[in-house]
User: What shape does this take?
Amino acid sequence: MNIYTVSFFGHREIEDLPRIEENLVNVVLEIIKQKEYVKFLVGQYGEFDWLSSSVISRVVAKCGYNNSSLVLVLPYMKASYRKNKQNYYIFYNQVEICKESSLAHYKSAIQICNKSIVDRSDLVICCIQHKSGGAYKTIQYAKKQNCPIINVNDKI
Assistant: This one.
């Protein structure tokens, strides 16, 4: 099976959420239609992470395709995950702890995890609305790695 891996990065807060959501729905739907199997890698740190997970789940349920999985990637073991594992699997198909970042200092763990995710990705979907912050740094890294990028914020 040919697995196409897509990751998502964005700022903690999103401006013009309805427009971003509509753009994200269209992009996710096209990918699911075009690819044999899609592995969606998401985080859990801001509005865009939550929006991406929600959109993926809704699009997959609505379109009837059974060719994808939604994977939550954590930078390290979190107490909330350890205590509530069964609840995570209600929403996500899989939960991964990033090995590289789990061994790092917690202040650098998220950026290390993001780089690891980019390195695994065939495509990065982002919502970059300003040129600062961790999501922006991650997209700059993805560009250096020549990873294709779609910014669902079409205004930047």
The longest helix spans residues 17-34.
